[in-house]
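Students often ask why inverse folding is considered easier than folding. One informal answer: many sequences map to the same fold, so there is more than one right answer. In these notes we will look at a single instance of the problem. The structure comes first.
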């Protein structure tokens, strides 16, 4: 006896909202079979020069973690790149969440805090 089966395919899309134009930009979109591991793209968006701090699941998608085994669910899913300022990152460095930034007053002629 031979058994044949077909697993459904779903799209996994990663986006970022451009902070300057508020337009949605697609980072990556791939089609995978249900239940296989999918690849999470880099949190650095070359086109915009932005670095995110994580991914936010949209439209009922399951949460993902960068170093966990993330499997394709039984639906199309979209993940949005979370930028440092969205997490209350005032004075933060987008590549290093929680980093306090540089006290610009340490430098002659400048005052206050400055983001990298």
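Output (designed amino acids):
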């Amino acid at each position: 006896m031979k058994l044949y089966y077909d697993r459904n395919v779903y799209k996994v899309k990663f986006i970022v909202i451009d902070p300057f134009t508020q337009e949605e930009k697609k980072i990556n979109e791939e089609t995978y079979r249900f239940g296989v591991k999918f690849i999470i793209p880099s949190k650095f968006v070359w086109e915009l020069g932005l670095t995110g701090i994580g991914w936010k699941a949209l439209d009922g998608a399951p949460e993902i973690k960068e170093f966990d085994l993330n499997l394709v669910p039984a639906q199309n899913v979209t993940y949005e790149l979370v930028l440092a300022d969205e997490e209350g990152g005032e004075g933060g460095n987008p590549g290093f969440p929680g980093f306090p930034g540089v006290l610009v007053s340490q430098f002659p002629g400048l005052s206050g805090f400055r983001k990298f």
